[in-house]
Every structure is written in structure tokens, then in C-alpha cells.
Amino acid sequence: MKRSDFSADFLWGAATAAYQIEGAALEDGRSACIWDQFATIPGATRDGHSGAVACDHYHRLDEDLDLLQALGVNTYRFSISWSRVMPSGQATLNPAGVAFYNRLIDGLLARGIQPAATLYHWDLPQQLQDQGGWVARDSVAWFEAYAKAMFDCFADRVKIWFTHNEPWVVAWAGHYIGRHAPGMTDLNAAVRVTHHLNLSHAHAVAAYRQHPQGNGKIGAVLNLYPMVPASEAAEDHAAARRADGYHNRLFLDPVLLGNYPADTAAILAQANAALPIEAGDLAALAAARSDFLGVNYYFRKVVLAGDAHPVFRFAETKPPGAPYTAMDWEVWPDGLVDLLRRLRTDYGDMPILITENGAAFADETIIGDVVQDEDRREFVATHLEAALRAVHEGIPLQGYYYWSLLDNFEWAHGYHKRFGLFRVDYATQKRSWKSSGQWYRDFLRSPAKD
Ligand code: IFM
Q1: Where are the domains of the chain?
Q2: Which of 22, 144, 166, 410 is labelled catalytic?
Q3: Which of 48, 150, 296, 436 has the greatest number of C-beta atoms within 10 Å?
Q4: Which tens digit of pLDDT belongs to each residue from 51-64?
């Protein structure tokens, strides 16, 4: 496999998110976000870690931009910290916060790297959480106003926009399972958040279409899983279908089809947690035309009937003997092709960007200054081979972003899980190459298609 096997305009990138790398949590006017607050709860994150310092990217911007250039990517996916640019969450911009992203965007462009901005990667300003957060219907208007302000500031130079990153995690890990900020365990709250995220995506897309600088591309980023029944039994197939509704279709259908999956909506209604759809909402969903779908692919789910999930009545099992990452996620490159095929079958030929794909490993062997992460190198190579198979089948796959550029704050796992192409020594903030990063660099250095 060579770079020239892909189209000349294929987007090759790496991804990060603001709260996971920036640090400078309360500097230069940034207000607290829900993860600053959540991390203060005893036991919420491993060893009480938080993103207060993280990779100190806020103060090391130029060094990190140079890493991107050395890697040879032609695009970089970052997220904007809402509480840095708009500390109260509404209206008033923080000039220092805006200046930081101007330096980031201009620094990328000066290095020939296309900026790709995510509007929301899980770090709601705490002041908005105090007014109900995503559970409140007002959140749709808050997000639309914030999105418009970001387009005003940056849409002249940023031509790839992502609305929400992994709304399933925000809604369900944050409001039902309680493993993520704001740490709620309330089914009705999770369902309300699901709808408000989907609707706010649609409103932000509509705002972009109307914006004078809105001549780039915009779409959502979903974490999607091939759902594989654990056996041929009809009940396992039915459980896999329910799990698919819960994890995948509850977001895919509103974003790409403009409605909700009837079977999944019925399960929620039976649990006295109907989607809070108001007049005009479905029309707004249907009117929002995405330019692409961002797909975060990490692993498949093998599903059987069971009550591990009490509402959707399924359980998950892990195939024995398979390779697993440090997150205990199965390494399953074929799942990427399966997922992309399924998207084409069910949702048509929507252009697709793989907006995240990556793996955490122990990274224990360091020779000289280079982390010897053969496991990650193989992970990337085999997933790119799977991506190429999809391209050969005619699936309109247009880009790949590795997660992540740097080791960073892995949410409830703190700094214990390392996903980076570059190692970060958190005591010194020194960045070092990993051999996977060198492999990606060499792959990107090989000639592109004519
Ligand atoms: O670190 C996260 C990222 O914030 C969202 N997608 C999955 C990654 C790995 O867990």
C-alpha cells in the first residue's frame, strides 16, 4: 500500500480535541467547562486527573504545529474550546481566546496544512450547564449562536467544519451512564440531550449555509460500530438490531435522513422516555444537508440478547483470542470496511471522512528517543489497507485522521491511555516520535498520485 493508491486530493490528517491537549484551563479569560468541574468529583477520573495542564498545547502551539509539519499531514482536525472563546457560553467573545485560534489557523495555513475545526468536543461551558446544559431546549439556540460566532471569526480560512463530535458519548455516557461530564444517570435527560444535539447540528448546518463565508464543507462526526450478532440465534440478531438503533441509528438517521428510527424511538417511548420532538423539528433535521459524514471507527461490537442494557436489552461479549488494545477494544480492521459498506447501503453515497481511528497501547519500549510501538504501526497500516479496500469498492472515502497527534487526557482514564503518534512526557512536556509516527510520516512522504 502506497500513498499513490489513494486519490491525489485525499485528506491525510491527525486529530485532537481542545480539552484533551490545551491545558491553560483558566488562563486568558477562559472559563470553566463541564470537564473541569467533573474532574473535581472524587473517583470521576482515574487518579483525579484533569485537563488543567494536559499537553500544555496552549503555550506550545508553534512546537506542535511544527510536529504536524514534520509528520507531513495535509490537514489537522482540532476542536474549539467554547469556554475559551465565549466564556459565559453566550454572546460575548473573549479576544484572547479568539486570538489563540487565529494563531492556530494561520500557523496551519502557513505550513500548508488545511484546518478542520470541530465546534463541540464535549467541553460545554459550566455556566451553560448551570442553566440546564444540553438537557435544556435552550441549548439548541446557544449552540447555533456559538456556531455563527465561530463562522464569523474563522470561516474565511477554515473550510472544513464538524458540528458535534460523537454525540452518543455526550448524551449517553454523559447523562445515562454517568461516566463522562456532567455525570448524570437519567434516561429522560439522555434522550432529551440526544434530540437537542441532533437538532443543534441541523441548526448549525443551516447557519453555515446562510453565512457569507459558508462556502466550505460541514458535517457531523459520529462514533459508529458494526454490530455483529454473537450467534445465529434470532434473539441475538434482534439484540444486535436494538444495539444498532441505540448506538448508530439514533444519530445517523436524524443527521442523514432527517428522522428517527421508528423501532428505536418506540423502545424509548415504551420506557417513558419519548424523544421530545416539537413541531418543526423534523423539518429542520430534514432540511440540513451535510457535505460529508465524519466516521470515528475504533472497534466492532459483538452483541447478544441480555439485560446488561436494561432499556435496549442487549449485552456485549468479547471474542476470545482476538488482539485487544490497552482500552480493551478489539483490533478489527475488517470492521471499517463492513461499516463503510453498510453506510453506503443504508444511507447512499454520502462522502465520508474517517475523522478518528487509532489505538492506545502501553508504549513501554523506548530506544534512544523513539517509542517502539510496532502494535500501533500495524494498527494504522491494517486500517489504511481496509480503507483502501473501501475506496476500491467505489465508496466515496475522502480522508483519514489518525487519533491522536499527541498522547493526551483520555477523559475518565486520565493520562493512563496513550493514543498519540508522538509521546508526551507529562513531567517535562517533551514530545518524542513513536515509530508509528515515523511510519505514517514515511508513508505520507511517498509520492502522491499524479
Ligand atoms: O479520546 C477520544 C476522543 O475524545 C473521542 N473519540 C475516541 C477517543 C479515544 O477514546
Answers
A1: 3-445
A2: 166
A3: 436
A4: 999 999 999 999 99
